[in-house]
Amino acid sequence: MRVIAGEKRHLLLKTLDDLSIRPTTDKIKETLFNMIQFDILGKSFLDLFAGSGAIGIEALSRGAKSATFVDNNDRAIKVIKENLEHTGLSDRASVIKGDASLSLENLSRKNEVYDIVFMDPPYDKGLYLPVFERLAKSNLINNDTILILEVGLKDDAIGVTDMGFKEIKVKKYKSNKHIFFKKA
Questions:
Q1: How far apart are CA 146 and CA 91, in angstroms?
Q2: What b/e readout covers 56-74, taking b as 16+ CB neighbours within 10 angstroms?
C-alpha cells in the first residue's frame, strides 16, 4: 500500500497483518480521492475506524490542513503513528485510541468542525449507526461537511437518513461501496 498522490506520493505505508482489518486498495483509494479532490485542500479530515491510517494520510498528502485518526486497536494505533512518522505528516495529525462513537464526544469539546469525515467500520456490524447518531447531535460537522461511509456492497446504510442525513452519492466497486452523505 502506498500514498497515491500529493506531496508524499509513492511513499510506501505499513499495513496490519490482522485479517479482520482490510485496507482500502490503492485503486479504490485513488477513485475515492478523484471524487473529492477539490474538497480537500486546506480542510480538516476525520478518519474513523482508521486502520493503517492510509485514507487520512492520503488526505494530508493531497493538502488537507489536518487529520484526526481514531481506532480502537492498539496495533492499528502503532501503525498509524509509524506511517505518519515515515511520511513526515505527524505535525498535522492527531491520533486517538478509542471507540469511534465514544471518541466523538471528546472531540466535540475541542470545538473543531470537520470538513470531511471518512469511516470504514468492519462490514455487516452496523457500527456506523452510533457514529452517525453522535455526529447528528454534535458540533463536529456542519451543513457543508462531507461524510463518506465505506460498507459492503449489500449494505444500504438503513437508518442513516432517519438521523437527519441525506445520501448524495454512491460509488460501487466489486465488493464494497462508498456512500456520501451531508446533513439534510
A1: 24
A2: bbbbbbbebebbbbbbebe
